[in-house]
Design a protein that fits this description.
The structure holds two protein chains of two kinds. By secondary structure, chain A is mainly α. Chain A has helices at 4-14, 19-40, 43-60, 69-87, 100-106, 114-131, 134-144, 150-157, 161-181.
Chain lengths: 191, 369
């Protein structure tokens, strides 16, 4: 359910009032930039991705009226940033924070690829997240949705980075077992 | 775990493995909105922080009791029979804590508050030994309430066994001894507010320069070596005029910097400085009667029990496998399946009458009855 503030911002979009963009930036700008820069690894690229996100949001609302503006923006900025990342894949880069090593533990081997794989994983992911206690789910999302470093997650939630690291390790293992059980991947080389 | 990796080989494209990881990363974009909202929610964050603080508070009262117990136990070990004194005046002790107490380290300042929030676990600033008198915060310790007194034995640090006349309930405490015992407990519990830092975090000295808790430490110039325990050196750091800062160092790697007053040097306090003690999971007591020997199997079973309970609490798989004896007489436990890289060492620290087993954020104190 949309918060009052989100409803107000969405109303600006619907009214084609350009203040919608500035209001969005005020509330969600740092969230979007954090997601983007951790994917693309470059602040200029991240700013560009965030701008593209606002443009896409402006073009999407209406007809869409998202229940959760934050989740809506998060999805768009992630996808735009990942596309940007792919386009720059030929170049060596430093500074991006996608935890490739960790994610590759969860999906060692699969016959699927592309959109088919993404959708299959997404279904298993949502079931997996639903099964977790709230605390673990939040940590898992912050780590792999936002690509947030462990020490920042630990600081936000008052947990030690050590404990968090262990918890992430175990959750990845469980998620991998879920993906294998759902037939999304097979027990491959793994880690 | 590698958090950042360079991708690409300069020839274009990414590896298959990276591609799969990228696709998995993309799948997270399809996480349901409610999970994203929950992740972003400050209310949920506060709820989780509060829950983590409650776990910490449970530790705090347990640790305060155990610290008192330990202070008494250690103190007893260095006191000549029939003449109970505080540990500070002990002679002939080979206990490093006593050496620390004799150091001229300055007492900590009461104003050593947490700084600008860039460091440490906020919740763990509450951890530590209560600055209230011991009785105010902690549950009764079975040692402090008993009127019986065990025979003291010459302090002797044995890696595997605890031997000797740990007689149980025969001797009476003198009134003076009881008072001294209470004082020792209170002093130990009256440590000032503690701030703990982990590697990567930093403090600002009085002159405005930053001191990092990091992998390398300049042993020659960082400060004064206070004492060594279990292979860890404890230093009083130079340059902190507004307080008393200690660093816990091993192999030139600094594990933690804390403002703890190590004069009493309790094991649990040192474990806290080693960032392992975020939560006292349980405190156990050895079997009834005189403890002649605590053999290796007891250590293993005890450590495994603690770790298993810890794992259950945090919904982890208790795949604890090996407990290995390392060179300095301590043990480490290796987590995970056979062949899996162990994540964290667990230290079992053995003193004359007490054993502290510390791992991650769980610790257990064993005291002989």
């Amino acid at each position: 359910m949309a918060t009052a503030e989100d409803s107000r911002i969405i109303a600006l979009y619907l009214a084609r009032d350009e203040r919608a963009i500035s209001e969005t930036d005020t509330k969600y700008g740092s969230f979007c930039r954090a997601i983007s820069i951790r994917i693309v690894g470059d602040s200029r690229d991240a700013e560009e991705c965030v701008s593209d996100t606002y443009m896409k949001t402006w073009n999407s609302i209406p007809p869409q009226q998202p229940e959760s503006l934050g989740a809506f923006l998060g999805r768009i900025v992630r996808n735009i940033s990942l596309d940007c990342y792919r386009k720059k894949a030929a170049k060596k880069r430093q500074g991006d924070c996608i935890p490739f090593e960790e994610l590759s533990e969860c999906l060692p081997d699969t016959q699927n690829s592309g959109e088919e794989l993404t959708n299959a994983v997404a279904q298993s992911l949502n079931e997996f997240l639903e099964s977790l206690p709230q605390e673990q789910r939040v940590y898992f999302m912050r780590r792999y949705y936002m690509n947030e470093p462990l020490n920042l997650i630990a600081e936000r939630y008052g947990i030690s980075a050590n404990k968090l690291g262990v918890m992430m390790h175990r959750l990845r293992k469980k998620f991998k077992e879920k993906l294998i059980k759902d037939g999304v991947c097979t027990e491959g080389g793994g880690r | 775990m590698a958090e950042n990796i360079n991708i690409g080989n300069g020839l274009g494209g990414i590896s298959d493995r990276e591609q799969r990881a990228l696709e998995l990363c993309e799948a997270f974009s399809l996480a349901e909105d409610k999970f994203v909202d929950e992740m972003m929610s400050d209310e949920v964050a506060e709820k989780i922080r509060a829950a983590n603080r409650r776990k910490t508070l449970r530790f705090r009262s347990s640790v305060a009791a155990c610290a008192a117990v330990l202070a008494i136990v250690v103190g007893i070990g260095v006191i000549p029979k029939g003449q109970l004194k505080t540990a500070e005046s002990a002679e002939g002790a080979n206990n490093n804590f006593v050496a620390a107490e004799k150091s001229d380290a300055a007492p900590q300042s009461d104003n050593y508050d947490d700084y600008d929030g860039t460091t440490g676990d906020k919740a763990e600033e509450e951890i530590g030994f209560s600055d209230k008198p011991q009785g105010a915060a902690a549950p009764e310790s079975p040692i402090t309430t008993t009127t019986a007194m065990r025979e003291e034995v010459a302090p002797e640090k044995k890696p595997k066994t605890i031997k000797g006349g740990l007689g149980n309930h025969g001797n009476e405490m003198t009134a003076e001894a009881e008072a001294d015992e209470d004082n020792a407990a209170s002093e130990d519990a009256e440590s000032g507010k503690k701030v703990r830092l982990a590697p990567g975090e930093y403090l600002t000295r009085a002159d405005g320069t930053d001191w990092f808790v990091g992998n390398n430490i300049d042993r020659k110039n960082c400060g004064k070596l206070l004492y060594n325990e279990n292979g860890y050196d404890v230093y009083e750091l130079n340059g902190f005029d507004n307080g008393y800062m200690t660093a816990v160092v091993r192999d030139n790697k600094c594990f933690a910097a804390i403002t703890a007053d190590f004069q009493k040097g309790s094991l649990a306090e040192l474990a806290h400085g080693l960032k392992f003690a975020g939560e006292l999971h349980c405190d156990q007591y050895m079997s009834d009667g005189e403890v002649k020997e605590l053999d290796e199997s007891v250590f293993r079973n005890s450590a495994l029990r603690i770790l298993t309970e810890y794992a259950v609490d945090y919904d982890l798989d208790p795949e604890f496998k090996n407990i290995d004896l390392i060179g300095d007489g301590n043990y480490i436990c290796r987590l995970g399946n056979e062949g899996e890289t162990f994540v964290e060492p667990i230290y079992i620290s053995i003193h004359d009458k007490a054993v502290l087993i510390v791992c991650y954020n769980a610790a257990a104190l064993f005291v002989a009855k």
